[in-house]
Amino acid sequence: MTKLLNKPSLFEKYTPYLLILPALTYLLFFIGIPIAQAIYLAFTEKGAFSTENLDYLLNSPFSMFKEALKYTFLLAITIIPIQVAIALGLAMLFNIKFPGRNAALYLVILPLTISDVAAGLIWYSMLSSYGFLNKLLINMGLISQPIYFFGYQYRNMEFLAIVLTEVWRATAIVFVILFAGLQMISQEHIEAAEVFGANVWQRLRYIVFPMLLPSLQAALIIRTLFALQIFGVVWILAGRDIPVLAGEAYYEQVFLKHTGVAAIYALIIAGISVAVGALYIKLFKAKYLEAGT
Amino acid sequence: MMPHEEYSIVRYYLNKIVIAGLVTIAILWVITPFVIAIAYAFTDPDQYYSISVVFPTSFTADHVKMLLALGADKAIMNSIIVAVLTIIFSFALGLPAGYAFARYTFKGKDSLKLFIIGLRMFPIMVIAVPLVTLYLRLGLNDTLLGVALAHTSMALPFVILITSSIIAGIPKELEEAAMVFGLDRKGAFIHVTMPLALPGLTAAAIFTFLMSWNEVFIASVLTLTNRTLTAFILNTAMAAVDFIKFAGAFIIIFPAMIFVFIARRYLISMWGITLR
After folding, report:
1. Could you give the CA distance from residue B104 to residue A14 in angstroms, rounded to a whole number?
2. Which among A234, A273, A226, A228 is positioned nearest to A251, based on CA atoms?
């Protein structure tokens, strides 16, 4: 019977490729063509090779490339460690079984489902001069004047507002990965260590942490990739007061119609992301193939 | 042993209190901004601009109505059209591929799947700028179809991986039994696997909807007059008074909340698949 079913006709043999081909073609077309086009747009002027756009990017007083690069990385290295620390704590906490855990879990990851634009607006309602935080603190008598978070003269506070919003919005991404990682660690390992007299700290240090390391690496890399693309939150809360790579690409393209310059920004974001992504593949290829799903 | 045991009981309850406290803090940290933003979207201006009113008591739907009149109504329709087109395109292309990965073993399978996982890491937003030039030539500029095609390239790797994992979770034997009883592979898929996969596929479609609904960079770059909701809000909110911003937040998050509630059972596992 099985012999009959598995008889590989020539058509059957190529079926999986035929099934995958449309999707693959679409992806290669919709990513390959634009990237080629971006290179063309970036380095030509009226059909001839030109470094005019690059020159503008690096040297024009109107270009905020260096600031954008600085702030994109500054935001990433500020936000990611805070997110990892909070997510790690949360994952440990939710790894304990308590009544209502599923409902609590659902609430905690809720910010993951909303757009970054919405997250920016939501935190604006918390931090604006007449926002919740200022009114609360004033009525508690802790401050007498509102704390100003927005406006160019309060750039550092804008930076803080972005950090708060991103920690609120995207810590859940790290949390979901770490929580899944923790759930995969077999309870038997931990119990065995307990039997042999390992205390809580030793169990964390020598069993949980090493087994969680791959999830931690995955979370770090995914978060870094998203951090390089940061746009909506920054644009809503700070506009160009805090320039970032994607924000500058948007500004050059939509407001100044400098398509070539915007294309260079696109290529830079893609380039850095591919480098980080390659690291991801390198680190996890072996692990993934081993799982064999 | 005795004093030690008493100590353990105290510690047991202390532990419980600490856990409850920490969970409460985590939930308040996440929920408070949601509640405040939604409440402010409906708060009477007098109360909002009064420093002494921390918790508003007088509400109005004027801000949301005003934002809808400013063009959010059309933007909502645009967002729905783009998201539905994205679901149709990405499932038409992604479901067959997902089926192939779940049901066949073939040469180069691992490399192909790894390639798709790699593509999922690619920052799709970078295709927006060069697409403008291509779309101008194709007549797709500032069209909803153009945005949907770009969103499809963002959603497709995700749809392939999700559908593959959903189909792999349905026993192959059921399909084979149907084939023994005379159905061909296509028939077996449509009549046996498909109905079983439907709840998962629905959840995956909801996720695709949200991906498109929430995406702002591509939509803002590719459209000018036919803005989707997030792109519309991004450009309107900047110059608007505070209420319009809060109303904007409310209109964007409302459908997301509903959809997430419907698909909540699949939430964690699906993110597990997309983020791993």
Report:
1. 10
2. A234
Supply B69's token pair.
């009149």
| A250 vs B: CB within 8 A | yes
Helix (H) or strand (E) holding A49: strand A48-49
Closest by CA position to B222, among listed A34, A164, A228, A205: A34
Q: ipTM of this predicted complex? A: 0.89
Question: CB of A42 within 8 Å of any CB in chain B?
Answer: no
Nearest-Cα distance to chain A for B159, in Å, is 10
Tell me if B113 sits within 8 A of B160, measured CB to CB.
no
Query: pLDDT tier at B6 (50, 70, 90 boundaries)?
Result: low
Partner B, chain A 44-83, Cβ-Cβ below 8 Å: none
Strand partners, B43: B59
What pLDDT does residue B1 have? 44
CA atoms of B166 and B169, how far apart (whole Å): 5
Separation in Å, CA of A206 to nearest CA in chain B:
23
Measured between alpha carbons, how far is A150 from A76 in angstroms, rounded to an integer?
Answer: 20
A10 burial class (0-12, 13-18, 19+ CB within 10 angstroms)?
exposed
Task: Find which of A113, A217, A225, A279 to mutate to test the B interface (most B CBs within 10 Å of its CB).
Answer: A113
Residue A55 CA to residue A10 CA, distance in Å, equals 56
Which among A279, A122, A274, A6 is positioned nearest to B30, based on CA atoms?
A122
Q: Percent helix, strand and coil across chain B, each rounded to 5?
A: 80, 0, 20
Instruction: Specify the 3-state DSSP secondary structure of A48.
Output: strand
Q: Specify the amino acid at residue B221.
A: V
Enter the pTM of the model.
Answer: 0.89
Bridge partners of A44, per DSSP, are A49
Question: What is the number of helices (H) and of strands (E) in chain A?
Answer: 14, 2
Total length of chain A: 293
Phi, psi at B170, each rounded to 5° = -100, 125
Q: Which helix (H) or strand (E) holds A45?
A: strand A44-45
A152 touches A243 (CB < 8 A): no
Q: Do the Cβ atoms of A176 and B149 come within 8 Å? A: no
Average pLDDT of span A114-134: 93
| Inter-chain residue contact B126 with A22, CB threshold 8 Å | no
On chain B, the residues whose CB falls within 8 A of the CB of A218 are 275-276
Q: Would you tell me which residues 145-174 of chain A have a C-beta closer than 8 angstroms to some C-beta of chain B? A: 146, 168, 173
> What are the tens digits of pLDDT across the range B39-54?
999 999 888 888 888 8
- Taking CB atoms and an 8 Å cutoff, what residues of chain A touch B214? 114-118
